[in-house]
Design a protein that fits this description.
By secondary structure, the protein is α/β, with parallel strands linked by helices. 44% of the residues lie in helices and 12% in strands. The protein contains 12 helices and 8 strands.
Amino acid sequence: MPNDLQTSTGSRIDAAIARSWLLVNASVPSAYAAAARSDADQIILDIEDAVDPRNKDAARESVANWLRGVGAWVRINDRTTPFWSDDVDRLCGTPGLAGVVLAKTEYPDQVDETFERLGGNTPVIPLIESAMGIENAVDIARRRGVLRLAFGSGDYRRDTATTADDLVMAYPRSRLVVASRVAGLTGPIDGPAVTDDESVLREKTATTVAFGLTGKLCLHPGHTGVINTVISPSPADTAWATGFLTDFEARGRVVRDGSDLPRLKRAEQITKLANQFGVLG
């Protein structure tokens, strides 16, 4: 991805490492401000599935107008729909547009066309929601302009007639993680947990982390705090990392055995993220 791509929105956590991604129905402008006040690392104004086809034009205008004052991401309609062209044309050059989430991405050229139509400097997050998208994940991840991958788990289940069981979802999640690693991207963004139970949300987010995904979509502002906490390094991990690095420096950075270098890399990564997320050990 070119270094000059804009990947952050205001004072929020940089999109390249953002944990919570709050989807906001673009046809409800009154919800925009509440989302902006939330703890979400990044906001996505949704003009795709959340909006009735008859209301696409109005929602698109509301989004473009609001972006001028407060930056956000926008989930646009997929390349195969008649709405995609209007989306990219209206958003191209709009101040405050942090990037687009391209719905139902299945082929690399869909990313190419979107990136180019947006001027070649707006980040794209392909939302992979089908068997074809999973099959092409590596090629999609390697396209110019891609910041991260995201998993549209609900539509993937509908496409493949599978359930939400974690064992069943292991393959698509792992494939997105591997594709991201191969392409040199940050870990992908997991699909949302549709629940009002905080303990369930915490458990589902822990599963996200266990599979190697580093962000999560969410549908309610109240979910963002739990997601941010679970995906961040824990205070215990941060304390371990700080202690290891202190000890490593004190002994002159001497490697004692084959476990030292892997531990060093882990400690450095934990410390870096803890600093970026404000976690105290």
